[in-house]
Amino acid sequence: MQRRWATVCIAFFLVMAASAYSLMALAEQPTVDIEGETYENGSTFQQGGTTYNVSVGDGSGQLTYNETVENEETFANNTAIDYRNGSYNVSIEAGNGSDSFTLEEELDVEAILGNDSSVENSTFTRDDGIEAVVYRNGTTRPLEEYVDREAETFSEGDQMEHDGETKTVANVTSERVLVTWETEETQSIGIAEGETFTVDDTEYIATFPDDGTVVISTQLEEYNSHEESVDYYQERTSGLLYVIIFSLGSSFLLAALAFLPHRG
Q1: 178 with 170: CB under 8 angstroms?
Q2: Which residues pair with 74 in a beta bridge?
Q3: Tens-digit pLDDT profile for residues 113-132
């Protein structure tokens, strides 16, 4: 009698397990069904006048684009900067209205005098404050007339080549020079499944049908509804799996207990 009831219970649990398994086999996991633009790895698209390059792989990706960046730099008065493969001094003449400046080449005067046998190896300052060169014959000459010093004057709005960039003189004061220029820099936006990102002030969401394809959509609410459906599906599937495990475990336990040998 005990074994008969055990057999009935085992059959019941096996039917429960089989039914749960059938439901799991028939259930279909929800798929993402949102409208958007589909891009493959290496494709491009334009928005807001900007071209975006799409990179996709292993269920994630990124958008890269070039952005114009405004740069600026300040040259302080009476400081040296690199210019024309040499060192030039920034000179802003007092009282010129602070709208222009001059770049004057810095020279190694001591070395120049040392290589000229017709002059003394050092300069002196005349009574009028001008630095001068002394020739061996006793005559003198202002240093600025003796040396071949390059100089170039720039005004606001002028352009100059500096550090490999074409820069514009934006503003000149008695203390400094402000130059500006534009550069192209590569920017990137990371994209991942279900994560939102912004392109040209528009919010998007990404989904990946396969490893090499991405769908970019503005249907954020629709995607969130899909996520809720997936959560519901996984919750129900997990419940059915627990039923299968419990039913099979109970059947095994009942069989083991029912068919144990009796003493005596």
Answers
A1: yes
A2: 178
A3: 888 888 788 888 888 888 88
